[in-house]
Task: structure prediction
Amino acid sequence: MIAVIDPTNLDTIADSIIVMLADTLPPYTILYSDTSLLSTNGETVVHFNDDVVQRSYYVVIRHRNHLETWSATPLAIRGSGAIYDFTQSANHSYGNNACEVSPGKWGIWSGDVNQDGVIDGVDLTRIENSTKVFSVGYLPEDLTGDHLVESTDYSLVDTNSGLLIYRMKP
Result:
């Protein structure tokens, strides 16, 4: 991962994500949420208050231009905390909804620019419009994190939208 937020001053911080804990029973309500900084090695530490302990939750990850992703199974949180690694395999994400980003490493799908739970033509149009006006900066349409919306970003969404990828949750 590359440093996206501020590559000069925060070169070990890739981006921010929202980590949520959802109930394990229908309708799987989000019970807790925290924004966390994601390091360039793909790790983050999230702190929730003490009342989350001694229960199990689905772990939900949101990012500004990636598909919301749920853990495959509920995670039991004990007094010492808990660790969940989405990168180990596709089956660590609900519905095997992950992409292989390097051999043996899995990640969440890129391209849900408008955060509606599906990577589709609407996301593609937003990126296309941003490329026409030479958009630069920390933008949802910048999928590569280079602070420039251009053909590489468009290509990622074009490819992923053709795969009919959408949010999967219990």
Summary: The chain has a mean pLDDT of 92. Residues 121-132 form the longest helix (12 residues).
